[in-house]
Amino acid sequence: xxxxMYLSAKRFVGGHHTETAKFKQLILRAVGExxxxxxxxxxxxxxxxxxxxxxxxxxxxxxKGEDNxxxxxxxxxxxxxxxxxxxxxxxxxxxxxxxxxxxxxxxFFGNTEYDTYYMDEVMRTEERLTELLxxxxxxxxxxxxxxxx
Length: 149
Hints:
Blueprint: E1 4-12, H1 18-31, E2 40-49, H2 52-61, E3 72-74, H3 76-91, H4 93-100, H5 116-135, E4 142-148
Helix pairs in contact: 3-4, 3-5
């Protein structure tokens, strides 16, 4: 048990457009028969475990304070803000960490120290979000965040 956090990339492939029809054929060839119509493809864009400081950021900036395990749309602007926040913390962890990415205690949320694990997750988040922001066609994909514990 513990805090598991997911950033998912989701792409709509429903409808009867020629472009999505070809895409759907490729997917169906790979996965075989389906019990219904293929409408979305979902990929795990990022996964965190017990990174309660990253979770707290999502709760505040994406979920409007609601920490309920729901699925929440995440805009490109929000992903950019999180990436930039990570960069600020990386530049000056001792002062900026508690100010911009404070840890959050919770049932099975993990350590609340500003230690190596904390910084590893900040750096990994910055790297992954930079990769996503530079390489993902955001016009075709929607991003969602959810967490469970």
